[in-house]
Design a protein that fits this description.
Elements lengths: L3 E3 L25 E2 L5 H4 L2 E7 L2 E6 L5 H11 L2 H13 L1 E2 L2 E2 L5 E2 L3 E5 L5 H11 L10 E3 L8 E5 L7 E2 L5 E2 L7 E7 L4 E9 L9 H13 L28 H10 L10 H12 L2 E3 L1
Parallel strand pairs: 7-14, 8-9, 8-10, 10-14
Antiparallel strand pairs: 1-15, 2-4, 3-4, 5-6, 11-12, 13-14
């Protein structure tokens, strides 16, 4: 078993106006006199106000040892971070560039259309149960549609098939006969969503639960399918092999996506900067 060692550290991130991301984001509005600070505290200055005979400053919060340990664990696997960069930021789809991450900040309360069988609902819930252990991501279920902010519904209209890698219309393609819609604020934070699936026109009914799993996972961060070679039972694979439990790979990807809630926009540039900072901070043996 690998043991995590936390090195002594001071992370110094840019506070220029061009850099939105700040690992030490704070809601603390209190200013203090610069005369009261030691040299290490001065490194945490994020805002300055000059007054007569003094300078008042606001400090960025220190990250706790527990939070740092969790982040180090999320970022320790280079393969996972590479897959994450690909599915969360880089690839353009139909003119859309996912240049910033999108997150759920509200609880996700799921309601299943009554047209779904108990078997499908039970398998879906069991599959995503390990997600309960992920920080900053909360999924619940309800039998009351007016209490839900995420509805999984059987579509009343035809949803088209998509082409596979061989340019052939194929119902096994993850986005064939199924679609989802998400509602977000102007800061890339989701607060409502719906999945629609065209059950009637899916010939192979065993694909229903498989598609629901993949699209729901995808909607947790508006992820894109990954083309890196990873386990066949990862939901990020186009040819995902249906499994009874979510894979360790997918859990690791969600932990990376939700290691913290970003109060400001979080771009690929921010991610790479943070990844580099953590490599210089976290050590493993």
């Amino acid at each position: 078993m690998k043991t995590l060692i936390l090195a002594c550290f001071i992370i110094s991130l840019s506070t220029s106006s061009a850099q939105n991301f700040n690992l030490f984001e704070t809601d603390n509005s209190k200013f203090v006199s610069i005369k009261t600070l030691n040299e290490n505290q001065k490194l945490r200055i994020i805002e300055t106000v000059i007054i007569t005979n003094d300078t008042l400053v606001k400090l960025k919060d220190k990250i706790s040892e527990e939070d740092l340990k969790y982040m180090c664990a999320c970022f320790k696997n280079d393969t996972i971070t590479k897959i994450y960069r690909n599915m969360a930021f880089t690839r353009k789809v139909e003119g859309y560039s996912n240049s910033e991450t999108s997150q759920w900040t509200s609880n996700i309360i799921v309601y299943f259309d009554s047209k779904f069988s108990k078997k499908i609902k039970k398998e879906f819930k069991a599959f995503f149960k390990p997600v309960e252990k992920i920080n900053n991501l909360n999924i619940f279920y309800t039998n009351r549609p007016n209490k839900a902010n995420y509805h999984i519904k059987v579509s009343d209209t035809i949803i088209k098939n998509h082409k596979n890698d061989e340019d052939i219309l194929d119902e096994t393609q993850p986005f064939s006969r199924i679609t989802y819609n998400l509602i977000s604020d102007n800061n890339h934070k989701y607060y409502a969503g719906k999945i629609f699936i065209d059950v009637k026109n899916i010939s192979d009914k065993t694909l229903i639960i498989k598609k629901l799993k993949q699209l729901f996972f995808n909607s947790l961060g508006h992820f894109q399918l990954s083309y890196f070679s990873i386990s066949a039972n990862s939901l990020t694979k186009e040819n995902y092999t249906n499994s009874l439990r979510i894979s360790e790979t997918d859990i690791a990807l969600l932990k990376l996506h939700y290691f913290k809630i970003h109060h400001n926009s979080f771009s690929l540039k921010d991610f790479l900067k943070l990844e580099n900072e953590l490599k210089n901070t976290c050590t493993y043996d």
